[in-house]
Amino acid sequence: MKTLTQLxxxxxxxxxxxxxxxxxxxxxTGFKNGYRMSLQQNRAKIENQLLRxxxxxxxxxxKKSGLATERKKVFxxxxxxxxxxxxxxxxxxxxxxLGIRRFESLVRARSIIINLMVEVYGASSSHLGRMLKxxxxxxxxxxxxxxxxxxxxxxxxxxxxxxxxxKQELIN
Length: 172
What we know:
76% helix, elongated, Chromosomal Replication Initiator Protein Dnaa, Chain: A
């Protein structure tokens, strides 16, 4: 309601008095749409800040409890083993998973590989990106998808159970 009253007050300014009804409607619609967009952008910024805080809190708790997993170099054989295990589980071709195609089944397998490498082996995003021949921001994107529960990481999907199974297989 506060926004609506602000809009009404702004429309009483001298520059708007001589506009036609249609022009006023255009200004009003533009203002409302712009306001909605700014709210959405602010929400996205807040979500990103909360995600960063969550990551920092996790790292702090790991250090505090003495279970800190240092970011370390992962050898190609380890990555190869993880990729093979995921490819067998999801019945996808290894070359396609490592390729540039963006079919959902391939992207889902890539996302699982990335999250397994980070959570189980503590691979850094830049090192993992170099090994998979992708940009490190793609690795960050897949980590963010899992943390926020978006796309194929939503709670109602089975990917979480499958991920836990694969993680347990790799740990043991």
